[in-house]
Amino acid sequence: MEKSDKDSIPSNEAIIDELTKDLENSCVKSEPEEQSTQGVSSEPDFDCEEKPPEKDFESAIKDCTKAVELNPAYLKAYLRRAQLYEQTDNLDQSLADYKKILELDPGHSEAHHAVRRLPPLIEEKNEKLKEEMLGKLKDLGNMILKPFGLSTNNFQLDKDPSTGGYSVKFNQGNT
Hints:
Keywords: TPR repeat. By secondary structure, the chain is mainly alpha-helical. The chain is 54% helix and 8% strand. It has helices at residues 12-24, 54-70, 75-87, 91-104, 109-145, and strands at residues 28-29, 46-47, 155-159, 166-170.
């Protein structure tokens, strides 16, 4: 790594280049396939469809974050981090990075596509989490109410569309 003259600290460009190499090496090398006789290179290619171990994602995200800290206008680091966040199902962070890419380069097509594609995925993920949370709360409620001969089925929740709040009604006949 190149060092700048001041205090033997690596230059920003050298750090960014090294981080870029690390990110490029995070893809998994695949074995070269049998090639036809059409003069196609037998070099091994890189298959980024295979997911590296989770710690590799975390490391790559940290590397991208460091590159962005060193150079806040480093578009490639934002793009790679956004892709890594999406692969690790951190869709909110991915969307934030894609929006930052559009601030830096308003014509970036991949970022435009992602900004349109991710919000419905985020909403779907949040709905699944909400349903899972409500199911677990219902199970907890049933565990607490069971000694009293009640269940969460004895209670009806009605959502008020104007405020988004809920009102609770008790129905003794439902068990």
